[in-house]
Amino acid sequence: MTEITADSTIYDLLKAKPEATEALFKFGMGCVGCAIARGETIREAAEAHGIPLAELVAALGIKE
Predict the structure, then answer these.
(1) How far is CA 22 from the centre of its chain?
(2) 3-state secondary structure at position 51
């Protein structure tokens, strides 16, 4: 399995760590049902939602 980082897509994150859904929702990210999640990276999503990347990756338990 490929390591999930901030440059992985949200789709790959949710495939590898389904429990990440809870953390995404806590940040106000409805990525689970979002069509963009297939191609958008975690880094891009954090920027689009105005979320500090360091906080998001810490909550997700992944590397930046």
Answers:
(1) 11
(2) coil
Does the pLDDT of residue 1 top 70, yes or no? no
pTM recorded for the entire structure: 0.88
CA trace torsion 40, 14, 29, 34 (10° rounding): 60
Q: How many CA atoms lie within 13 A of 47 on its CB side?
A: 7
> Could you tell me if 28 and 35 are in contact, meaning their C-beta atoms sit under 8 angstroms apart?
no
Other beta carbons within 10 angstroms of residue 9's beta carbon come to 19
Confidence of residue 2 (pLDDT cuts 50, 70, 90): confident
Distance separating alpha carbons of residues 34 and 64, to the nearest angstrom:
22
**Cα(31)–Cα(33) distance, rounded to whole angstroms?**
6
Say how far apart CA 47 and CA 53 lie, in whole Å: 7
